[in-house]
């Protein structure tokens, strides 16, 4: 079972890395890279992200409880919608995560250094201030562990993946009219193709960066402890690098659609991996799909912040003292 969990954690880390990938007579490569940089510098706008992971397992000979456990990893969907104004330091994020029959949704409003979290898992609006958010990400609050990579790690990951882009693997394709949430937009389609030989070193380097992020690793270990899993995360990462050598990356395909203002208004990433395991419970196929859309760029979003009162809100400290662990509550509801 620990081997199954080890591989499952590797797969989720791969998904995290791939999400970072998603956002070239100048050459196609130069136009593409300038558009990526320009898009990352956006101050206002809206974006959506839809991610799907599908994992096929070797199931022959497994007991019923193991089959039930694997169902959690077979099909994972994550949806995110973000409206932001960096100048005002305001945003609202709507998140929905689905795995098997389990679904979790939340809204996170942010103004300055204060965030307001609304989710069915917590009976009141959770108010998190800047310092508390830092501590949560560092694993200092036992009941609210939100693993998040540091800005330094995210920048290193971005550099690893963007270094793979070159004149040889970035190609401009046809002009196209896209249907976006903001209306029809004219754009040019670009494709990035990467090979197994290019991807494996980048994935291994990404694992090293993740394993050296102390705040993320500490928080992840505490989260796994809260789920009653006796797993040494740092050891799993070391094993994960070895597992990559036992995989074949069949395809990696990234499409980007760049509008006339040189913004990446839509992008997709598709990854297909064959894992050469035969042991019952191990994965044999992994597919990943990511779609990102951007619209209303440089337009101020209208964010309706919730009315927060002492009666309808709660702090992380109060939540820790007065309410059950959200992870334990969620597990109990789905037994």
Per-chain topology:
Elements lengths: L1 H20 L6 H13 L3 E14 L6 H11 E11 L4 E10 L2 E10 L2 E5 L6 E5 H8 L13 H12 L7 E11 L2 E11 L2 H16 L2 H13 L6 H12 L2 E13 L4 E12 L7 E13 L17 E2 L1 H7 L3 H8 L2
Parallel strand pairs: 6-12
Antiparallel strand pairs: 1-2, 1-11, 2-3, 3-4, 4-5, 5-6, 7-8, 8-9, 9-10, 10-11
Protein name: Lipoprotein
Give a structural overview.
By secondary structure, this protein is of the alpha+beta class. The chain has a domain at 2-81 and 147-295. 36% of the residues lie in helices and 35% in strands. The protein contains ten helices and twelve strands. Strands 7-8-9-10-11-1-2-3-4-5-6-12 form a twelve-stranded mixed sheet. A hairpin with a 2-residue loop joins strand 7 (170-180) and strand 8. Helix 1 (2-21) crosses helix 8, helix 5 (151-162) runs antiparallel to helix 6 (196-211) and helix 6 (196-211) packs antiparallel against helix 8. The radius of gyration is 21 Å and the shape is globular. It starts with a helix and ends with a helix. Residues 133-145, 227-231 and 329-335 have low confidence and may be disordered. Residues 306-335 are annotated as: Disordered. This is Lipoprotein. It comes from Koleobacter methoxysyntrophicus.
Question: Could you say which overall geometry the principal axes of the C-alpha atoms support?
Answer: globular
Strand content: 25-35%
Helix content: 25-40%
Q: Low-confidence parts lasting 5 or more residues at pLDDT below 50? A: 133-145, 227-231, 329-335
Instruction: Provide a count of the helices.
Output: 10
The major β-sheet equals: 12 strands, mixed
Average residue pLDDT: 81
Number of beta-strand segments: 12
Distance between the termini: 19 Å
The SSE order reads HHEHEEEEEHHEEHHHEEEEHH
CA-atom Rg in angstroms: 21 Å
Strands of the biggest beta sheet: in what spatial order? 7-8-9-10-11-1-2-3-4-5-6-12
The SS-based structural class is: alpha+beta
């Amino acid at each position: 079972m620990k081997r199954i969990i080890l591989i499952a954690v590797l797969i989720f880390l791969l998904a995290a890395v791939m999400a970072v990938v998603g956002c070239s007579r100048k050459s196609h490569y130069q136009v593409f890279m300038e558009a990526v940089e320009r898009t990352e510098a956006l101050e206002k706008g809206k974006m959506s992200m839809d991610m799907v992971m599908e994992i096929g397992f070797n199931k022959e000979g497994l007991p019923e409880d193991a089959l039930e456990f694997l169902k959690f990893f077979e099909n994972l969907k994550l949806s995110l919608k973000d409206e932001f104004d960096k100048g005002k330091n305001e945003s609202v994020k709507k998140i929905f995560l689905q795995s098997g029959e389990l679904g979790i949704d939340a809204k996170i409003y942010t103004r300055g250094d204060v965030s307001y979290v609304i989710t069915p898992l917590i009976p009141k609006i959770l108010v998190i201030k800047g310092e508390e958010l830092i501590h949560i990400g560092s694993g200092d609050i036992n009941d609210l562990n939100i693993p998040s990579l540091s800005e330094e790690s995210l920048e290193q990951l971005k550099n690893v993946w963007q270094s793979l882009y070159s004149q040889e693997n970035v190609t401009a394709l046809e002009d196209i009219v896209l249907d976006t949430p903001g209306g029809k937009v004219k754009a040019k389609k670009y494709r990035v193709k990467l090979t197994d030989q290019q991807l494996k070193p980048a994935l291994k380097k990404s694992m090293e960066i993740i394993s050296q992020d102390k705040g993320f690793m500490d928080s992840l270990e505490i989260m796994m402890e809260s789920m009653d899993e006796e797993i040494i995360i740092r050891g799993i990462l070391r094993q994960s690098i070895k597992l990559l050598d036992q995989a074949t990356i069949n395809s990696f395909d990234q499409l980007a659609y760049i509008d006339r203002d040189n913004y990446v208004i839509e992008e997709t990433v598709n990854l297909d991996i064959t894992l050469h395991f035969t042991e019952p419970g191990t994965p044999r196929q992994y597919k990943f799909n990511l779609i990102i859309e951007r619209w209303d760029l440089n337009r101020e979003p209208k964010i309706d912040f919730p009315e927060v009162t002492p009666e309808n809100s709660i702090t992380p400290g109060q939540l820790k003292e007065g309410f059950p662990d959200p992870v334990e509550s969620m597990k109990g509801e789905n037994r």
